[in-house]
Amino acid sequence: MATIDDVAKKAGVSKSSVSRVLNGNFQYMSEDTKNRILDAIRELSYTPNSLAQSLKKKKTQTIGIILSDISNPFWSEVLKGVQDECMRNGYGLMVSSSGEDPDLEKENILMLKNKQVDGLIVNTTGHNSDLFENLTAEKFPFVFLDRLPDGTITDTVVVNNVLGARQAIQFLVDQGHKRIGILLYPIENKSPRIERLEGYKQALTANGIPIDESLVKICRQERGSGIEAVHEMLSLPDRPTAIFSTNTMLNLEVLTGVKKAGFKVPKDVSVIGYDDYPWVPLLDPPLSTVAQPAFEMGIQAAALLLNKMKAKRWKKPQIVQLDPELLIRDSCTPPIKMR
């Protein structure tokens, strides 16, 4: 295994010159010298001792990310974006999941801090405000992703969920639907869910359609709860002609619930889901969705954190808001009486 001495000898320079290049300090160094050192590093496949470097710099070149539910396939695309941006900047990534448990979220934050990560990206459960205030007071760099908790202000990347929900409901209204159901997981302290419900209500109100609370179903965050909610909706005397699912995990349960209730999509019930994946067009029927820019969310969150870590002065927290896209497929048609 090559050492820094081998690199210095091959490049014909001192070890301190090699160290300067490894640390990105090219000031007062000629282009020729820098290139000789870089060539020697590549030819010898030299890898610096990351532990020794981190002890010297007091940096580990690693960031941590804590997700609320790693089983949700939405996060795999977000992670790709985070990792791409980290690797592009020479950083490693440590991943953990809170499972929507505030206590586990707190444990993960403290564990990653103890492992000396240089900063954190947090898709928060919406609790632990005291812990985040302490991180802010310590000037420990962190950014929020997808969710805006109450009381803590820091750099954050979010999606315009009100817009996404409004677009979905407006499309259904334009098709002639007036009885439109919505399914959500518990909304307490979960800004995306609160915003999607708000967008749903805004769109109905803008079109003069009264909000029927019997069509608003808050599901337990457990398998099968969406199927139960759909069954309850479709058992109403004046059942919905369309359903809006606001979560990846609920999308398939809505389709399953409609089928189990003896109805067909879109003949009897139109459906629009949230989040999009390569397999969604392969469903029967292909599902219309509100697609979030998951990969871009990951890139933006990592970029915000890396910039924050490099900043020498305090900067006003930045909120990056990305727009979703409504993708219409074959799961929506006008209600039967209008065909």
Automatic annotation (TrEMBL):
Keywords: DNA-binding, Repressor, Transcription, Transcription regulation. The lineage of its organism: Bacteria, Bacillati, Bacillota, Bacilli, Bacillales. This is LacI family transcriptional regulator. PANTHER family: HTH-TYPE TRANSCRIPTIONAL REPRESSOR PURR-RELATED, LACI-RELATED TRANSCRIPTIONAL REPRESSOR. Pfam families: LacI, Peripla_BP_1. InterPro entries: HTH_LacI (IPR000843), Lambda_DNA-bd_dom_sf (IPR010982), Peripla_BP/Lac1_sug-bd_dom (IPR001761), Peripla_BP_I (IPR028082). Residues 2-57 form the HTH lacI-type domain. One of its GO terms (molecular function) is transcription cis-regulatory region binding.
